[in-house]
Amino acid sequence: MGEAPAFVVDNLLQNQDGFGSKSKGCKTTTTIGDKTFVIGGENDESTLSVEVQIFDNPTGNWVTPIVLGTKPNTCKGLSAVSLNDDRILIVKKGSTPDDCIWFLEVDTQFVRGQKKIQGTDVVAWSKGARGYAEKPVVISGPSGVGKGTLISMLMKEFPSMFGFSVSHTTRAPRCMEKDGVHYHFTERSIMEKEIKDGKFLEYASVHGNLYGTSIEAVEVVTDAGKRCILDIDVQGARSVKASSLEAIFIFICPPSMEELETRLRSRGTETEEQILKRLRNAKTEMEQGNSSGIFDHILYNDNLNECYESLKKLLGLDGAAAATQRSAPQGIDLPTDHSVSKMDNKIIINCGTPELKKASKNLIVLDVSSLKGGAPGRTRGLDVYAIDSFSDGLNGINQPS
Ligand SMILES: Nc1ncnc2c1ncn2[C@@H]1O[C@H](COP(=O)(O)OP(=O)(O)OP(=O)(O)O)[C@@H](O)[C@H]1O
Ligand SMILES: Nc1nc2c(ncn2[C@@H]2O[C@H](COP(=O)(O)O)[C@@H](O)[C@H]2O)c(=O)[nH]1
Predict the structure, then answer these.
(1) pLDDT tens track for 157-173
(2) ipTM of the complex as predicted
(3) CA-closest residue to ligand 1 atom 5
(4) 390 CB contacts (<8 Å, ≥6 apart)?
(5) What is the best residue among 139, 140, 143, 145 to mutate for testing ligand 1's pocket, by most ligand atoms within 8 Å of CB?
(6) Where would one find the signal peptide in this protein (predicted)?
């Protein structure tokens, strides 16, 4: 048998969080550093809303933090365990298989950045997404270089593999552009308010308009079991690099500035003033793209088909893998009764229920080392498998059954 669980938090009984929290209901507590996070809330008959309160141990004060991301919907109870001191893993009881594992980010880079902006305590919800942990793809490059064209080709060839992160923008729609498909077209005052409310993963002022990726835009794609593609400028790429969304960063270069101008003009979507502005900005973007250290790959879009083949190659789509269109990952079937503990880099969910005992699988193991990314929105790469603690033994948790 392996070493004893490092940290176990089981459900607390009704109204017994031990810290004098005023709200009623079923809660779990997890202490990280000076702070105790009390998660849970009011019981409404048999369901529990999921709220967060923080008890600051040195001062003895309660803080209600700003909560970012979509919070979990109601459930029948919660278990929690801290992971790496920057996030808390939550297991929801009585939830659907794709909705039972969540992460509350309490001190990740993203949360620390938001704390600075908001000037108060911030936490962020992130839902566990099971399955292939392929990184989102960030594509940047000067206006007119062909980013949109390359992304359309990828989405057309691999419709079940990729999903486009639909950005918000304050610029006016072009004649063929549809709201909610190409962009979420919005007013500046509304977008500024939503930025202030922490709804955006990144945003930037680009060519005189506001553009931004909402947390929800990334969540929607991850929930569909697809790999997210972001078409954003270099400032946005820098912000994403600083967030906990672990992505691949690709910069697309034109063969020359003359060719870039030709493409922008022949697209015919911008006024002369806009074209000149975009060309001026292109010079700075090219410098940053080549020297900022943000980008993992630089591609030259001279011949479109050759560039597309290079893009596919670096995304691992040039061989047999390309033929494998992936289906959406399945969730985890958790019984209502269970307890959660941590052992090394594995989370053990003990399901001592008669049904699972009958199926001779009473432990569910979550390998934390497989997790990718985090807030905003979704934590990808949940590697979960069931074992029988009696016949497989706890030492057997390294061997997925
Ligand atoms: N390799 C290429 N050779 C010639 N024309 C190209 C090539 N790649 C794209 N184009 C054309 O260049 C124009 C600009 O491409 P696209 O709209 O994809 O650029 P973009 O980088 O997405 O621009 P923006 O940042 O302004 O959205 C389009 O008319 C497209 O058909
Ligand atoms: N930082 C962000 N930049 C974005 C986003 N969506 C698009 N963009 C970039 O804006 C320019 C101009 O786009 P256009 O559609 O007006 O031609 C281009 O470089 C895009 O990459 C975003 O969400 N954030």
Answers:
(1) 999 899 999 999 999 99
(2) 0.99
(3) 263
(4) 360, 362
(5) 145
(6) none
